[in-house]
Amino acid sequence: MGTYEEEFEAIRKFVDRTTRLFLLPKEIDLRGGGNFVREGPNIIVGNHIGAYKDVSVLLRTVPRMIYFTANKMIFTRQGASELVLRHLHRHMGRFGGFVHVLLLPYYTFMVDFISGHIARIGTIPWTFTAASASRS
Q: Looking at beta carbons, which pairs linking 8-14 to residues 24 or more positions away fall under 8 Å?
């Protein structure tokens, strides 16, 4: 098994296509890209909790490997399924259940990839609580 960076390179094309899809029809206007720290410790804080667009923008613009903290629910298939279903129902009503079934292969792949690498890359799962929501 290779390093996380080597394995990430193997799916870079997939990540590139997926992030482009997530950002449609938006375009990224990156200002100050030269200010990214290229080596050593670095913390980048997105301004939205749980926004896939933030992750997509970061994966497309940051010029080095980055690692994320993430909702603890996405690290198991059952938790990810519940989280996605809840989100889809909130935004799409009954149609959300149908979309949930269509998305099952995609997020199952992502959960398998993420959960298989968490210990090696040091991602810290966090549990969403009302208190953490009030800090945002």
A: 8/65, 11/113
Predicted local confidence at residue 53, as pLDDT: 77
Dihedral angle at the C-alpha atoms of 8, 106, 49, 97, nearest 10 degrees? 180
How many CB atoms within 10 Å of residue 56? 19
Query: Residue 52 and residue 49: Cα distance in Å, rounded?
Result: 9
Contact yes or no for 124/71 (Cβ under 8 A): no
Amino acid at 54: D
d(CA 127, CA 111): 16
Average pLDDT over the chain, rounded to whole?
75
At 32, list the tokens: 């100050």
